[in-house]
Amino acid sequence: MLVIDHVSKIYRVGGQDFTALHDISLEVEEGAFMSFVGPSGSGKTTIINLMGGLDQPTSGEILFKGRSLAKMDRNELAAYRRENVGFIFQSYNLLPVYTVYENVLFPLLLNDEKESAVREKVRALVDQVGLSPEINKKPTELSGGQCQRVAIARALVKDPALVLADEPTANLDAENSYHILELMLKLNRDFKAAFIFCTHDEKVTKYVRREVRLEDGFVEWDKTKQPEGHFS
């Protein structure tokens, strides 16, 4: 589904070049449940941003279902993100003036779908992440774990092929982290979307089926593994 072909990324920092990624090549299959791990500065967030079309590589290319992201113009990249990619952020990035229902509905409105046509879909997904009783509450009325569930529902509501999660458990306690990971693993099975994590959290590594470790912008290792999560 996604091919990273000899990708390097160089940033200009303080008048000097800093290489965040060095000639990375790997493939991501449909329905993957995998993570990029490594210390701060290893290139994890950079590679997630490149996959999501939020940034462009300095050299090499990223192909989504055979199409190069580098050859897309700004509007095409925006359409790629809207239609194919769900984002889950460490800080949730929910719209504070919107309710749970409205936050989950919002990506569909951006795709020019009518609320009347998707209302039941939104409600069903809110129910699937266990938030039906909170559907009319705003983010300030929710716990951190509940906010992350809203973010997950928002990411999945448009049926993306790819879900990119940047440190999704970093602001959660251990119990909520495990609940969120169990939920994402179940939704990975139900929706068939590929989940890709960028994380420092060892709890996440217990759930993924593939783990890629980055060190100073290089792939140190890439291994498949048996997950330890409840649904494994």
Structure described in brief:
The chain is α/β, with parallel strands linked by helices and about 230 residues long. Helices cover about 35% and strands about 30% of the residues. The chain has one domain (about 35-45, about 75-225): P-loop containing nucleotide triphosphate hydrolases (Rossmann fold, 3-Layer(aba) Sandwich), CATH 3.40.50.
Question: Please, could you describe this protein's structure?
Answer:
With 232 residues, this protein is of the alpha/beta class. The protein has one domain (33-44, 74-224): 3-Layer(aba) Sandwich (Rossmann fold), CATH 3.40.50. It has seven helices and ten strands. A six-stranded mixed β-sheet has the order 6-7-8-3-9-10, with helices on both faces. Helix 3 packs across helix 4, helix 4 (115-128) packs across helix 5 and helix 5 runs parallel beside helix 6. The mean pLDDT is 92.
Q: Low-confidence parts lasting 5 or more residues at pLDDT below 50?
A: none
The H/E string reads EEEHEEHEHHHEHEHEE
Structural class: alpha/beta
**Straight-line N-to-C gap:** 23 Å
Helical element count? 7
How big is the Rg? Answer: 18 Å
Assembly type: single chain
**Gross morphology:** globular
- Average pLDDT for all residues: 92
Tell me the name of the CATH class: Alpha Beta
Main sheet characteristics:
6 strands, mixed
Helix residue percentage: 25-40%
Number of strands: 10
Q: How much strand content do the residues show?
A: 25-35%
